[in-house]
Amino acid sequence: MTHNLRVPKMTFVKNKIQGHGRLMDPPSRSSMWRLGFKTPVNYDDIELYCGGISRQWEKNHGKCGICGDPYDGPRENEAGGKYATGIISRYYHKDQIITVDVDLKNNHLGWFEFRLCPNNNVKKPATQECLDKYLLQRADGSGSHIKIGRKTGHIYTKLRLPAGLTCSQCVLQWKYHTGNTWGKGDNCVGMGCSEAQEEFYGCADIGILDKGAPIPSTIRPRTRRPHIRITTSHVRKPSQPTRRPASFKNCHAIGSWVGIYDTWCKDFCPKGGIIVHLALGSSYIIGNFSTYFISYMRMRNVSPDIQYTDTIWIVSVGTITTGFTMFLSGILEKRLGSRITILLAGWLMSGGLALTYFSIKKSFLMLLFSYGFLYGIGNSIAYPVSINCVMKWFPKKEGTVAGIVLTGYGVASFIWNPFITLYINPENEIPDFHINGEDYFSQKELLDRIPSCFLVLGIIFSVFTFVGGMLNCTPPSEEKIPDTILLPLTKNADHDENGEEEDEDEEHIEYDRQLIHKPETKKESLEREITPKMALKTRQFYLLWLILLFLNQSTDFFSSLYKAYGQTFIHNDYFLAMIGALGSVGNAISRLMWGFIGDKISFKWSMLILSIILAVLLCSLSLTELGGQYMYGLWVVLLYLTFPGTFALLPAATHRYFGKRYYLIIYGMLFSTHVVSGSVGCLLAIKLKPILEWHGMFLLSGGMAAVCMVFTLMYNEKCKEK
């Protein structure tokens, strides 16, 4: 029985290990493609870890395939498997001292061992019994264990081949026994004491020839990639990469806490993101909140002629501010780190809301500054940073995890709308002042509670952004490595049989660092990282920009004034508040649902389906007057189940097409659409509402959703090489 200290995991995200290391020289069967061999591509070559610690030790009682495949699963890396092609990747001479290279991405303590099996038949699976006969020893005589300490990057080790051994095909096995799991051993209790630790493996096919025998020329690198070329030069092994000094913006654990810290971060970063977005999602409360603060400013003579449609000005100022400032999130994140960026932006947003306690008593212009401008800046900067951080932790499920984090954004109004209504209108009073076709609250006690509600919400949101921001942490940074690395192509003869360095020319293969240090993302992300300047030259950027523009334009009017519209034929303030709350639940479900759908069937088709549903619902919204309050409530919830999904689909689409390095800046550039939609949307609502009335405005909104469909059809998701 194992005694592992486990950190609780999120129930809705499978806690999958991120890749840790791979055998690079000689290259393992799963990694040969990275050096130009014509072998099947395995993007998960750094995840050959027996199916995970639970599967290996609890289900299979410590057993594992000799090359890292799960013991009870397909053996893709053993003879007969997909990656065991029978190609000999390296040749050596008898009794030679060889240098092996392991590319370690994340250090989880522990040690390496290397074993050798003279198999002499590429079609016959090697066995662990054969491998155990030849446990390779270090060239300096210090034994077979290679303790790795705190090293990451390329770790080079000199090993002595077994005396007198030759083979036409030997299987070289790399074993990495980590030390990052707490437990009890024979002589200790603590980190790494238990036998049940994560283990990583790699198998390479090599040949060992008699001394002086010529090296066969069996390797032919791929030629379709221009960055791979053959060179002849005398090289020394690269020195071990050094660690960059720690900085406050990205703190890292040390010693035995590294494994626990990484696991803790991976588990709690999404939770922190959800908490942050519970505050940021307060942008959706304006549809309910506006019926109160517009009534306050009109009845207290702050702005005697103000109307509900003037709420659009607040939305527009916030929207335009978002368009101008969201790109700053990428700049600030690089300079300050994600945690500090979230904290500062969150407090700016909360401060703007709290200042509205004063501005609502002064003028509508000051209200625009505090609740529109300041609130908008903070919200727009904090919004993408936490999403980006979580997508880095879960690069293969970008849409799903973005949707999970954004459930906080969507569900926020489910919490805050009832809170606002109960705080301001606990007696469920109805608007009692009718003018120009609109109903306003005039009850003194109700109006008195409105300013303090802004202050209370500002304090609450500052706490939420602090807690969520502190839970935010970025994945361990990859060590900086040269743009290209030279490794031996057909032999590894930099030492003779006595361990002395030979001064001879060697044939090497030069390969791009992106092939070796590939981000664990979709294949498209492997090819390049697109800079903001390059993005502006792509057709896809402008199509995404137009999709977002017309999507926002089609929904801004509805999301700002759905309650004001409902009040024209529904006279129950609690019911309308509850519909807003249920809509927020739909908002949360929408982001998770559409993010998952986007991961399964692609951004293009997900967005197309979403746009069609949105257009139909908006065009038919006015029919709810005939169906009554329950039909109205159903339509509102369905709309919130639809359009918010865009904001789960779009981050993943941007991340996949343009890459992760400049994601925040490019995503912020896409949100420059808000400058247009904020300005035009405001004018449309104010100028066209008296002419088209409610019914015409909803038909116009549906038409804009239909235009969004057209641009979606034109979008091509494949990132083409230049």
Automatic annotation (TrEMBL):
Organism: Octopus vulgaris
Entry's transmembrane regions: 274-294, 306-328, 340-358, 364-387, 399-424, 449-471, 541-562, 574-593, 605-624, 630-650, 662-686, 698-716
Domain Chitin-binding type-4: 20-206
PANTHER family linked to this entry: RIBOFLAVIN TRANSPORTER RIBJ (PTHR43385)
Entry GO terms, CC: membrane
Keyword terms: Membrane, Transmembrane, Transmembrane helix, Transport
Pfam family membership, one: MFS_1
GO molecular function: transmembrane transporter activity
Tagged with keyword Membrane: yes
Main location, first listed in the record: membrane
Lipid bilayer topology: Multi-pass membrane protein
Locations listed in the record: Membrane
Name under which the protein is recorded: Monocarboxylate transporter 12
